[in-house]
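From the pipeline queue, job 12 of 40. The input is one protein chain; the requested action is below.

Action: predict structure.
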Amino acid sequence: MKLPIVAYGDPILRKKTSEIEENYPDLKQLIDNMFETMYAAHGVGLAAPQVGLPIRLFVIDASPFAEDDEDGAGDPLLKEFKKVFINPIIVSESGEKKGFFEGCLSIPDINEEVMRAPNVVLNYLDENFEEHEVELTGLAARVVQHEYDHLEGKLFLDKLGALKKTMLKGRLEAISKGQVRVSYKMKFPNAKKGR
């Protein structure tokens, strides 16, 4: 089932999320719904706060980036990079930060260059609640950091300079009011009733 994606301006996108237990209600269905929602919106990652849930869960399928990594050489590892991340913790980030244009399903039609560390070590549970610790590089590391930020109540906009944020203010206000065209179902916090 496709879920509505929460738009910029909703307080849940600024809330730090809570860990979940293995007996979280309908977890498998939620994960399936999140993947379906992400694919319908042509995204590569989706965090639970983006579908209105303040829990530490995100899903990623970075296969669209398999031919298009930051160096333009393509990354065959991304072809199989479809994962569920439950209660993740970033253990470390390393390397000289690099810029790459990012967007977000909750902030449609805005793409900006964001500086992130190229390497990350992440501890997480998979959908079977088995623990993993992985070292990720390049676009895999970037996508994970972007989704992880959602669990911390942060958005990629927070990494932009003051001037860029000021320039985007009007567009962001329009998004929160539902004054944007999207091909997927969204929930707008400040939309006028009857729209």
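Job complete. Residues 47 and 58 are 4 Å apart (CA to CA).
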